[in-house]
Amino acid sequence: MVLLGSTGSIGINTLLVASRFNISVEVLVAGKNIKVLNEQIKEHSPKVVVIADEKDIPSVNHSRVYAGNEAILQVIADSQSELVVNALVGFLGLRPTLKALECNKKVALANKESLVACGAFIDTKNIQPIDSEHFGLWYLLQDRPVQKMIITASGGAFRDWDIKKLQNATLADTQKHPNWSMGQKITIDSATMVNKMFELLEARWLFGEGHYDAIIETKSLIHALIDFKDGSTTAHFANASMQLPIAFALDKQMDENILEHVNLVKTGGLEFREITRDRYPVWEIKDELLQNPERGLIVNAANEAAIELFINKEIGFMDISKNIINAYEKFTQVAQNVDDVFLIDKEVRAYVRSCK
Q1: Which residues of the chain have pLDDT under 70?
Q2: Cα–Cα distance, 27 to 44 (Å, whole number)
Q3: Do 187 and 222 sit in the same domain of this protein?
């Protein structure tokens, strides 16, 4: 396999699964965590390594090391692997997804932004999502009429906060996720609920037109539910671990035990909550966005630009959602091709930065 984003949580879990099933790693692509990367190189012996910054090349314990985004595209094109696992964070993960599909490779996709920003131009038949929510929907789907497909959210760092205090939330506050530890951006996205809106958009591109929604399930044991037209509902329970969807992405015939089963007696009870607009203002545009999924491009660009401003302390936490909604209302154009996707992305980012 080619693994993009090897030193993040999904990358680390992917390598654990790869070791378990004796899947060889041809290429490792990482950012700036050279210490972890060197440990991975020692264990998995990749043929090629790509990192973010050229100045870090001397620190990498490998004879074939390249740097930069263009190098990522080149190693994908040159690789013999039929599988590319894309666990890169943000819009920069889009071009590698497009390149892998262009080379007729299967993509195990954890990079939400690929489908959110460019779903209209991506053929999903060679994509296997490795989000727990989409895996859960895929697992539950059967040949019966569906009324609604539902994914769950943890609620993020501020699900129990006094709403009046959210305006003063700091970057450090956003990182205190109630259920697990993730990267900086995705944890911010969890706190704003942007992450869940992106997952709904992904579901729309993966499973087609239909009714999609999300609810909060505080223990993160249910990942997806499907309401069937006959009045019945099924739910996918699993202990929270990315290794289960990753294992199925690597082998759809998976018949081994990956996780311990959820112990319902020990769990005791489950709590469900509505996602409300006062705590998660971005939810205001959710329904319209799902009706016009091509405009996910606007939301993604505005979100990434706003998060940069928030990290730099140029705007407050609640201003992230305000900036997204503002950009969504201003930019109504729809990309006509892939080149448009990159042009519009640039325009939206510039606009959000000018409105700080």
Answers
A1: 180
A2: 10
A3: yes
